[in-house]
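Supplementary notes for students who missed Thursday's class. We covered one full example, reproduced here. Read the sequence, then the structure, then the short commentary at the end.
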Amino acid sequence: MLSELIELINTEPQFSATPYFYGKRGLFFCKKDDIMKRYRRINMASSKEYVDYILEQLSGLEEISCRSMMGEYIVYYREKIAAYICDERFLVKPTAAAKALLPSAPSEPPYEGAKEMLLVEDVDDKELLQRLFKRMYDELPAPRHKGKKGERQ
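Structure (token representation):
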């Protein structure tokens, strides 16, 4: 479907000058170069199976939890945000410990406009993931708790 859309935009003059396309969730204004990026964001939400697999890999750790946030997931370790699961990718906070354990891991933002995180490419190595989270913990920022009337402290 995406390839047909791109072909249509490239071949039809009335579409090639039009700065939008129609996706599953509505009308999007963009340049032709942005079509692939936007299409991926619309159609590549993380599956429940992938999230469950990541949580199973981390099951040897105490106090692992996961919360759905706008179609993607935040992974907490002992109440601190440690990772994101976005677009079927497992991304961890770029702490010094994470960089030492994953020296060749590429940096990617979990979503457009976010700070870059480290992409964990080998999610099948259960021991590595658990060691990574244990070493990262002390470097993770403390959780911010809401005060009165929803204000963060």
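Commentary. Confidence is low (pLDDT under 50) at residues 21-29, 35-43. The helical segments are 2-11, 13-16, 35-43, 48-57, 96-101, 126-136. If anything here is unclear, bring it to office hours.
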